[in-house]
Amino acid sequence: MTAPSVQTMRLSGGSYPDSWLRPTVDFILNTQKPSGEIPWFEGGHTDPWDHTEAAMALSIAGEMDAAERAYFWLSDTQLVDGSWWACYRGGQPDRSVERRETNYIAYIATGVWHHFLIAQDALFLERLFPVVVRALEFVLRYQGPEGEIDWAVDSLGAPLGDALVTGCSSIYKSLECGILIADQLGQKRDHWENARSRLGEALRHKPARFDRTWESKSRYAMDWFYPILTGVFEGEAAQQRLSNRWSEFVEPGIGCRCENHQPWATVAESCELTLALLAAGQREQAAELFSWLAQWRDNDGAWWTGYQFAERTLWPLEKPTWTAGAVLLAADALTEHTAACRLFMGSTLNDSLEISST
Questions:
Q1: In terms of Cα–Cα distance, which of 312, 260, 266 is closest to 293?
Q2: Pairwise CA distance, residues 59 & 192, whole Å
Q3: What is the DSSP string of 5-25?
Q4: 318-356 confidence digits (pLDDT tens)
Q5: Using one digit for the tens of pLDDT, what is the confidence trace for 96-143?
Q6: Are the beta carbons of 38 and 88 closer than 8 angstroms?
Q7: Counted domains in the chain
Q8: 145 preceded by cis ω (within 30°)?
Q9: Binning pLDDT at 50, 70 and 90, where does residue 7 land?
Q10: Cα separation of 129 and 126, whole Å?
Q11: Rounded CA gap, 296 and 274, in Å?
């Protein structure tokens, strides 16, 4: 299948395209199960991180009941130790994937805080806070002495022995959100603040603590921009980091590559890079990048995963709910539509540690 004809959608403050995005929202709603679970697509699997990404889109769209059902599904399926399995099918754990990924588990804190910023529902926050506490406490069991957090554990809870820059960056944002939730409820968690500071220190200054047992993941775009998207690097340090590798990852008129050596750009990573650009104060560049992406939306409002531009074909032929979720998050941030629009535009907390431009 070849690419569709080129379309553009350039967004700016106050120009949220509600009617244009309505079919995208309806796609997520139609994929969501009565239980609240949001699989990748009809007949596909569910993972806790991408489920939460799609739930955030529902909050942005004002679909509060559907968004809350998504979070209550997480509450209902949380294991006693605070974790979730990495993969679910038909509402049940897929035991062929017997691991639990720490960034997947922590991400509920980001989703819950995002929903609260929009809904301003204190009862929702109080109901979900114990779920967030159990999740973050599970994750922090796997923080090493140098600050990094192991990427996953096996079925018995044994750590798998390495850390990921992208995963730890996501956890860094989730810890921020967990701290903000706790503060909002008057239940301060000092040890979360300490853990977040140590994690930030590792991400900024201790690269040897990541990718210790496998080939470096620095070829992936997410390792490049996620530390900006999540507030690890800010200001000039963030701008310099983006500039240093821009030509490796960005294909003009198409989007952001997944890997620097592969001719494949994805919508979700392009949307997340849009958020990183906004976080770095590069609004015009963010709007330009997002404007390229409308060509990857299908007629039903769902968005294709990505485009293989050497072969000029959509690949894979999948339209995931989490890709639609990333589109809504980027559109919200560009247009400043909801009270959560600035969540990924920097941190509201300090680490009390110096930020370098490495």
A1: 266
A2: 26
A3: PP------TT---HHHHHHHH
A4: 999 999 999 999 999 999 999 999 999 989 898 854 443
A5: 999 999 999 999 999 999 999 999 999 999 999 999 999 999 999 999
A6: no
A7: 1
A8: no
A9: low
A10: 5
A11: 16
Residue range of the domain that includes 112: 18-335
Tell me whether residue 8 is in a domain: no
Query: Residue 208 belongs to a domain with what CATH number?
Result: 1.50.10.10
C-alpha closest to that of 271 among 357, 332, 319, 192:
332
Q: What whole-number distance in Å separates Cα of residue 269 and Cα of residue 262?
A: 14
Could you tell me if residue 4 is inside a domain? no
pTM above 0.85, yes or no: yes
Q: In whole angstroms, what is the distance from residue 169 CA to residue 226 CA? A: 6
**C-beta of residue 225 within 8 angstroms of C-beta of residue 268:** no
- CA–CA dist 217, 173 (Å, integer): 20
Where is average pLDDT lowest: 5-9, 121-125, 142-146, 291-295?
5-9
Residue 280 · residue 238 · CB < 8 Å: yes
| β 92-93/88-89 pair status | antiparallel
Instruction: Let me know if residue 90 belongs to a domain.
Output: yes
Structural domain includes residue 347:
no
